[in-house]
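hey can u check if this looks right to u? its 431 residues, i copy pasted from the old doc so theres a chance i mangled smth
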Amino acid sequence: MLGSLLLLSCARVQAPPGGPPDLAPPQLVARIPDSVAALPDFEGDVEFRFNEVISEGGTPNFGLGTGDLEKLVILSPSLAVPEVRWKRTRITVRPREGWRPNTVYRIELLPGVLDLSNNRSKQGGVVTFTTGAPLPGTTLRGMVVDWTTRRPLPRGLVEAVLLPDSLPYRTSADSSGRFVLGPVPVGAYLVHGILDQNNDLRFDRREAFDTLRLAAGRDSVGELWVFRHDTTAARISSAALNDSLSLLLTFSQNLDPYQRLPPDSVELRLLPDSVPVPVLRLLPKEEYDSAFPPARPPVDTSAAARARADSVRADSVLRARADSLRADSLARAREAVQIRIPGAPRRGETGRDTSGTGPLRTRPALFDKLLLRAGARLRPGASYVVVVHGIQNLNRIAGTARTVARIPEEKPPADTTKKARPDTLPRRSRR
């Protein structure tokens, strides 16, 4: 029996030899049953029909969620792996536990179906019907964002849990992080955006996610900012000297970007006598650089410095003239490009960023480092105890973080004096 299963799993339908190459992806031509329909006595299979024979994939469907076609099917509100079968030009789907009465079902086929020439479909399909419950009338829209990069999360998993029935309806975001989930039953939802690391199309609490409660009657979810939810408080991983008055504290996880701790929440004590040292500020690097800019070096007003400044100013004038000439040349070149023969295609401009995938600004950037500004110079070779009270991680779990910072010894200045070389010439004897 096992040998026959292995032979069947290895058998693959191949395209016939000869003829022109097939470059067109398979097209979805029919979905059974029709959407949106009321089918209280439905007992058959949901079908997705294509215009040609499709590929079963390299991994067969054994009900484990690892088959190539199983990875493309999302059946809601069931969380079990559905029965997915390949039938040449059709894909059939049904829940493993059977169709339940008075339930709204949503079966989604994701893009990615292959034909026998390995052409991949770029469009999917959705079938929605009810087995007795009221017809669905809500469509949820939004975007999944990775908070670590502040960029849209492609193929992010979205799960909307209908309240109070706890029925989960799922979909996958597109390549731009946007999603459309519907039609689904009318009601309040708990919407999760998930970074599906294991690609099983199911919500795992260990994966990064974000949650939003959506009231009944609303359909705009907005942005779901996915991040890792740590249940333990942040710890200080390291403390390094930034300059003679500040320490760079690195934490074990990202911190709450909205939290700003007052100076009295930080203890800085000089060992071994635990002498308290005043703390002025505890800030992220960007705000610290703005509050405590580096000191400017003294201005050299000597004649030699003035001569060097005059030379640099003259070079700047020459470079400005060269840049002006170059800009005039580029402007004339652009004008020449605009003059074209009627009917001839115009060449597009290059170097322009039209992707629109830059970081989003609706939430601040994440960080795991803070700069501590002391009220007195940190002593070289000494050790300090640092205690931060009430520090919150990204999940807003507060705790107390402590560490010992060791200030390195100052290196002695290098000896730049040249020692006299010993006289290796033979001395002449005096007669």
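The chain has a mean pLDDT of 86.
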